[in-house]
Amino acid sequence: MAVRDYIRERFFPHLWCPGCGHGTIMGAMIRAIEDLGIRKKDIVIVSGIGCSSRICGYLDFHTLHTLHGRALAFATGVKLSRPELTVLVPMGDGDAFSIGGNHLIHSARRNVDVTAIIMNNSIYGMTGGQYSPSTGYGDFATTAPYGNIDRPFDVVKLAMGAGASFVARTTAYHVTSMIKIIEKAIKHKGFSVVEVLSQCPTYYGRKNKFASAVEMLKHYKTHTTPIGSKEKEKNPELIERGIFVQEELPEYCEEYEKIIHMASQGG
Ligand SMILES: Cc1ncc(C[n+]2csc(CCOP(=O)(O)OP(=O)(O)O)c2C)c(N)n1
Ligand code: SF4
Predict the structure, then answer these.
(1) Number of domains in the chain
(2) Which of 29, 38, 65, 163 to pair with 188, CA 20 to 30 A apart?
(3) pLDDT of residue 211 exceeding 90
């Protein structure tokens, strides 16, 4: 099928600014789903609110556009009631780590079979460029005109610490590997966290003196490196990308099914 077979053209033109990374990530999600050959009717996209979360309106699957920060709670409900469906949750960093941080760590701990694609642009895009829990120390934002004094979460370490059984990082520059990572995350039985560094040229870019979206993409190219590379040994500041964790652990819906079975047998 062509990409347009997966989108709702009635909602276009989309709201994303020119150069925003979120559209690239939506394209990668479509290609991963196409490569895996999953039927449209077997996919559910659940999102909260944010520029990233608008993906939910644009994709032509079963979709649930819910409350800011609450997408994973809704996704857990969907997966528990229809475990045969593939559930994907596109999220912003504000959505995932601020208001939704609680749901993120508990989804990881429970190992619900849902794929969270966290589109990390280090800023609240939709509401005008406030700093988020992934804005770097010293970075500028609408609400940090003198530089941010909060230290950012390391998203990969956060997900690993909370017990996620699949944890990966990629960027909007590395499209081919992003597609492969999303495919593996979808196939993984358990909670998958895919952090995608995604440029917001309008707020993060302007505030932090990036001349254009292209400059931001070049930054992802030059400031990241595959996990365990020689470059990382030489320059520890480089951000690693790839799959950090891929582990088989009991999946929540299957465990819950056992409880239902035990209860129906009278204990
Ligand atoms: C309960 C609630 N609180 C706050 C908001 C306002 N709000 C909408 S989107 C958003 C943050 C968006 O940032 P992020 O999740 O990082 O996504 P982005 O827009 O950058 O893709 C906020 C605070 C809301 N819609 N609902
Ligand atoms: S404000 Fe930022 S995140 Fe939102 S659409 Fe524009 S570039 Fe993308």
Answers:
(1) 1
(2) 65
(3) yes
